[in-house]
Amino acid sequence: MQDEFYRIKRLPPYVIAEVNAMRAAARARGDDIIDLGMGNPDLPPPPHVIAKLAEVAAKPDAHGYSASKGIPGLRKAQAAYYERRFGVDLDPDSEVVVTLGSKEGLANLAQAITAPGDVVLAPNPSYPIHTFGFIIAGATIRSVPTTPDERYFEALERAVRFTVPRPSVLVMGYPSNPTAEVADLAFYERVVAFAKKHNIWVLSDLAYSEIWFDGCPTPSILQVPGARDVAIEFTSMSKTYSMAGWRIGFAVGNKTLISALTRVKSYLDYGAFTPIQAAAVAALNGPQDIVAQNRALYHRRRDVLVESFGRAGWDIPPPRASMFAWAPLPPALAHLGSLEFSKQLLTQAGVAVAPGVGYGEDGEGFVRIAMVENEQRLRQAARNIRKYLQSMGVNTPSVKAGG
Fold first, then answer.
1. Could you tell me which of 228, 205, 182 has the C-alpha nearest to residue 321?
2. How far is the C-alpha of 281 from the C-alpha of 45, rounded, in Å?
């Protein structure tokens, strides 16, 4: 009997899971671990959203199969969000589909539009589903940088010129997970022009659209005139409304891609639980205080992280968006590599982070730090890290009394 399965053989060991297992074991022993590894929001959804979930769940007829592409009210609510946030007018029936989180949407779209041997352009480092969703579907990945600059477009041009077969899909995500880089509208304009010239589909992951700092709102690729000819965009309720476990996301944009995703989903699921979809409508259509509050909270955490870790002897570049910081290893410990450094940080400092190599080979030399613990815990993490760095012979800044 065969036990070597084609798609499983294409998946390497998930190195982030190695650190996660160590974290779980440490907590099982009763160790106090400050978990900055997984991007799991520590905040609850708004009370009116939870109330709507309970209200609809109490109805006797709410427990049957739902709609795979999403209930009409939720698709209309997402279209309304795009109108007020980006000035983009979407048809809820043909340009919006509800997904079980953006991760499921990306993976199922990969299944819908990819044939074995297709070439897909994807960022390195990147969120794993951006590459492995297509690898599972049989595609070959050609990496491009995450940096939205001239290097990016040079890499795209080389890929088109030298790749056989020519690339059919370009995946991108800004604000980036894990690097927290951001893109502006001029960048998206160039991407759309490139995609049209070379007949390439564009998949944009906008999961962190509402977590931006320093007065710079993140744009949508669909704001570019003609973008819907080639592009689809994924968003999520997970971070914006602290609804990660609810598994509600959206794909919007190009009708051909939306239709393909909708058709594949119709074979695979009956949609999210109807009360969850109704509660998501309440989140999108109701008071939006939570969005600004969460943004301000992550902004404060960013500032505390950068300041306290810097005083501990580890300089962290301040991210411009997202709930993550992309941190280069302290120079004196760079030789350890991101995986070993992450393990030592867990075992010797009680702080969990995600090794950068888990997001692609170009992530080596970095770790991703999730800002999912409160400010007090972030300062405690900095104190623990300072002691660890000192134990490794790293010179750390002197601390004033009371500091």
1. 182
2. 13
Q: By the 8 A CB rule, do 211 and 301 touch? A: no
Residue 399: pLDDT band by 50, 70, 90 thresholds?
low
Q: Which of 36, 43, 16, 23 is nearest to 302 (CA)?
A: 36
What digits encode the pLDDT tens for the residues 211-245? 999 888 999 999 999 999 999 999 999 999 999 99
How would residue 402 be classed by pLDDT, with cut points 50, 70 and 90?
very low
146 φ, ψ to 5°?
Answer: -85, -20
125-135 pLDDT, tens digit each: 999 999 999 99
CATH topology agreement for domains 6-44+289-391 and 61-285: no
CATH number listed for the domain at residues 6-44+289-391: 3.90.1150.10
Q: What is the largest CA-CA distance in the chain?
A: 68
In whole angstroms, give the CA distance from residue 207 to residue 189: 20
Give the CATH number of domain 61-285; options: 3.40.640.10, 3.20.20.370, 3.30.1050.10, 2.40.50.100. Answer: 3.40.640.10
Beta bridge partners of 71: none
Taking the model in full, what pTM does it have?
Answer: 0.93
- Going from N- to C-terminal start, the domains of the chain cover 6-44+289-391, 61-285
Token pair, residue 224, equals: 């570019």
Tokens for 233?
A: 């965009």
Which two three-digit tokens encode residue 131? 């590459």
At 210, which amino acid appears?
E
